[in-house]
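Lab meeting, item 3. Inverse folding demo.
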């Protein structure tokens, strides 16, 4: 772990905001280095698309020459394209350099020191980190037991205080892959006296969205990304769809040009002009996910959980999957392990859906590693 603020003899670290003085940097996936099969690197640890961009994106980038120009100030063309795709007015769309950036702007808009945000662990780790950086307090109302990982609506409502600003709902949830029933989300939104933030990073794989709730309730917003379904993780484009009453405040928190480069803007607009192609890839990834789940179920003791996303969470027939995670990494196959004992997932790995061939290589290697360990 990197300590953000080492003690310095001059005492100058007193100038750093208290919330950051002893903070640790957010560490995404642990990527072991491949030494047994250095030629093979199969990256299934960050829920990226295994496919390149749409041909229209490749074309737009091949002819892209505007490096000397700033992007449009409020990303009007990109917002119009996103609005048309999501079926919402462009004025309600606020883009950013990935959803992480949109979360940053949202938290800057709402969180003062000691304000509370409710999350339901195990969930996307960036929430906890980004809330802490702003001095906010994370209130965890954990998901229910496996295999349903039920979202505890009553528990969340009981945890509300007069300092609760936001409730984070990740749907489908990362890392479990499950969808929360529509009725539960609507009950939460109807009863909550604060903003309910619905993270739909994987909605295109699930084929459903809660955007419709925004027509009936003022206290809900939806966050999306082009990183997963559109294969643009490296371009960093995400967006939020926000109610009218928030727009002025959130725009005042958004950096110039929405932090989106001219190249990323061109790539995202080209992708949104090729949605039939991208939807075809989503269908393929969903089919490959189901085929991978079937293959994994055939391995003794391996249990994939149902998933509405481009990844699978699987439990292994071992109490601790860490050595298996490490062994797979050494063989050039990178997946995700969740070591925090509080999350109760040390027997699990999360694997992103890669190409059909990568998926089968992962399953074959996992089977070999498990067999070797059994003796
Ligand atoms: C639930 C969830 N939200 C947000 C993100 C971040 O997306 P982006 O790449 O747009 O920052 C991820 C990425 O893994 C995610 O799993």
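The presenter then showed the designed sequence:
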């Amino acid at each position: 772990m990197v300590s953000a603020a080492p003690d310095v003899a001059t005492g100058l670290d007193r100038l750093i905001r208290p919330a950051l003085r002893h903070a640790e940097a957010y560490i995404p996936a642990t990527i072991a280095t491949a030494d047994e099969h250095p030629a093979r690197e199969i990256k299934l640890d960050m829920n990226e698309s295994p496919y390149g961009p749409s041909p229209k994106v490749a074309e737009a980038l091949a002819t892209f020459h505007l490096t000397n120009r700033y992007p449009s100030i409020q990303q009007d063309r990109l917002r119009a394209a996103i609005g048309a795709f999501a079926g919402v007015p462009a004025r309600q769309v606020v883009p950013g350099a990935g959803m992480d950036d949109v979360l940053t702007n949202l938290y800057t808009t709402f969180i003062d020191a000691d304000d509370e945000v409710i999350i339901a662990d195990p969930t996307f780790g960036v929430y906890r980190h980004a809330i802490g950086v702003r001095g906010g307090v994370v209130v965890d109302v954990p998901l229910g037991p496996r295999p349903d990982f039920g979202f505890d609506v009553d528990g969340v409502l009981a945890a509300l205080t007069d300092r609760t600003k936001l409730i984070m709902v990740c749907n489908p949830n990362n890392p479990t892959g499950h969808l929360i029933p529509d009725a539960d989300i609507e009950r939460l939104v109807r009863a909550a006296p604060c903003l309910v933030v619905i993270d739909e990073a994987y909605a295109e794989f699930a084929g459903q969205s809660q955007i419709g709730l925004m027509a009936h309730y003022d206290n809900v917003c939806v966050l999306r990304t082009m990183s997963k379904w559109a294969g643009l993780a490296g371009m960093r484009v995400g967006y939020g769809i926000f109610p009218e009453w928030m727009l002025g405040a959130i725009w005042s928190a958004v950096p110039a040009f929405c932090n989106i480069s001219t190249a990323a803007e061109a790539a995202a607009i080209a992708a949104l002009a090729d949605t039939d192609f991208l939807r075809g890839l989503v269908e393929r990834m969903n089919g490959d996910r189901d085929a991978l789940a079937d293959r994994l179920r055939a391995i003794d003791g391996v249990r994939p959980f149902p998933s509405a996303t481009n990844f699978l969470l699987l439990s292994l027939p071992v109490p601790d999957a860490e050595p298996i995670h490490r062994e797979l990494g050494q063989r050039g196959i990178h997946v995700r392990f969740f070591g925090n004992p509080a999350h109760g997932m040390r027997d699990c790995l999360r694997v992103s859906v890669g190409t059909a061939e990568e998926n089968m290589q992962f399953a074959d290697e996992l089977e070999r590693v498990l067999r070797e360990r059994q003796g």
